[in-house]
Amino acid sequence: MTLLISLARLLLLSLLLVGFPRFASSAHDYQDALSKAILFFEGQRSGFLPQDQRITWRANSGLSDGWMYNTDLTGGYYDAGDNVKFGFPMAFTTTMLAWSVIEFGDSMPPNELRNSLVAIRWATDYLLKTLSQLPNRVFVQVGDPNIDHNCWERPEDMDTARTVYAVDAPNPASDVAGESAAALAASSMAFRSSDPGYSDTLLRNAINAFQFADSYRGAYSDNSNIRDGACPFYCDFDGYQDELLWGAAWLRRATQQDTYLNYIQSNGQTLGANENINEFGWDNKHAGLNVLVSKEVIEGNMYSLQSYKASADSFMCTLIPESSSSHIEYSPGGLIYRPGGSNLQHAASISFLSLVYANSLARTSQSINCGNIYISPSMLRQQAKRQVDYILGDNPKGLSYMVGYSNYYPQRIHHRGSSLPSINDHPQFISCKEGSIYFNSTNPNPNILVGAVVGGPGEDDIYEDDRTDYKKSEPTTYINAPLVGALAYLNANPAIPR
User: Which residue, 62, 45, 63, is CA-closest to 54?
Assistant: First the structure.
């Protein structure tokens, strides 16, 4: 058995040294991919669209959102191919867009930096509305997903219930409120130089959101009036504790106040900061939390936070196949794989974290001790580049999983607005069930959702261009958000050796 394990590790080592299987491709145009990844968010907009809207097949939608609470809850983003505004993944998307700008904004062309800030603000303007009734109420969702998912309907035609889901104190919503605090704190940093007044507003509301999250501890999906709307779609499966630490960590970074430093120091163990879970996404923040906090250890010599860096190191060691602690699965074509569908969210978010951590390590000329090998910043960057290049077309199918990038990309994505005729071309109302003929059609989608990254292939690298297979063909905002940062880095540093 030991010999077999050794042979397996030698095989993985040889793969890493020569690179995962190479696929025919030209050098990628990361600037074009970056531009399109940001443009995608305009296709996800809810509310009253501005005159400079660039995805012109979309129009106004959800203009009465919030009416049942006599509150304006218009705006924000639809999370994926449906017409629901889920606060939990939207806040995470916002945090990742803002982190992309904080970390890699200097690498963005000026017009794409501006477009990124516009994309962030479309979300933060909405998040401010969801927190407008603090300290006693947080709005966490608009739209009944069970009804919505039984319709194939353009957002402009929505006649399904726009149910508003609210959490009133002392009922808990630590996950959504904690992630909202992280989103607004990170965004306050992104806007600090260009709009200091707006930055101050975001930070003030971030502090209030965190206060709600910490005062009334628990998951929002534990509330009986929320459960049917949140679950099984964006139920809190992994607990709310990571969002408390994540929100506090972002407030620490945005304010530099010792209050939040003390919080993440004293609550780390009780809230599970040392849990090494090989995942980072809308539900589980541990890996991102550890990378974020480690910046203070690596670059600021804040050794009281050393346990966070140890966890971040451990996570990075799991990513490198030749490491003795490698736990991440890869497809035969070299894609990071985790069970559960929408697999490219993992490739995108983990690539982003790898690049952020590599930057911190490189600034202080450090590497990671993974037991049998030291991992350098360049190795983490190579790993991230491989994942991004896979998404853009360096894969067994030679398919770009970003719509509109290259000449070969998914044509039948699971997305209502993209698959139904535009209101510009078909102004007549298309009802809930009338849309089914478009859902079941084998024709390509009539509207190209430029920049959308689909869920992607699974462990076997297989992808059928099938609208009905939502786990593979549905794009989401939280795939694109970390990819924006990764593409910004690669655009400025395209020559990372494979």
Answer: 45
- DSSP tag of 27: P
Q: How far is CA 78 from CA 43, 116, 132, 152, 154, in A?
A: 9, 17, 20, 14, 12
> What letter does residue 133 receive in the DSSP assignment?
T
Higher-confidence position of 323 and 2: 323
Name the residue type at position 345.
Q
Token duo for residue 317: 């060691």
% helix, strand, coil for the chain, step of 5: 50, 5, 45
* β-bridge pairing 137-142 and 164-168: antiparallel
Residue-wise pLDDT tens digits, 78-102? 999 999 999 999 999 999 999 999 9
* pLDDT, tens only, 435-458: 999 999 999 999 999 999 999 998
Query: Is residue 175 a contact partner of residue 243, using CB atoms and an 8 Å limit?
Result: yes
Please give the C-alpha separations between residue 135 and each of 89, 127, 209, 211, in angstroms, as whole numbers: 22, 15, 8, 8
CA within 13 Å, CB half, 96: 29
Backbone φ, ψ for residue 353 (5° rounding) = -60, -40
Cis before residue 145, ω within 30 degrees of 0? no
pLDDT at residue 157 in the model: 96
Q: Which of 286, 346, 414, 415 is catalytic?
A: 414
Give pLDDT, residue 275. Answer: 67
Catalytic residue check, 275: no
Which CATH number does 27-492 carry? Answer: 1.50.10.10
Within 10 Å of residue 459's Cβ, how many Cβ atoms? 14
Smallest CA-to-CA distance from 228 within 143, 118, 146 is with 146
Q: In this structure, what are the phi and psi dihedrals at residue 402, rounded to the nearest 5 degrees?
A: -100, 120
- In this predicted structure, the answer to whether residue 2 has a pLDDT above a threshold of 90 is no
The catalytic position among 82, 144, 238, 474 is 474
Q: Identify whether 103 is a catalytic site residue.
A: no
Cβ burial 239-251 (10 Å sphere, 16+ → b, else e): bbbbbbbbbbbbb
Active site residue 465: yes
The catalytic residue among 29, 465, 466, 469 is 465
pLDDT confidence bin for 340, thresholds 50/70/90: confident
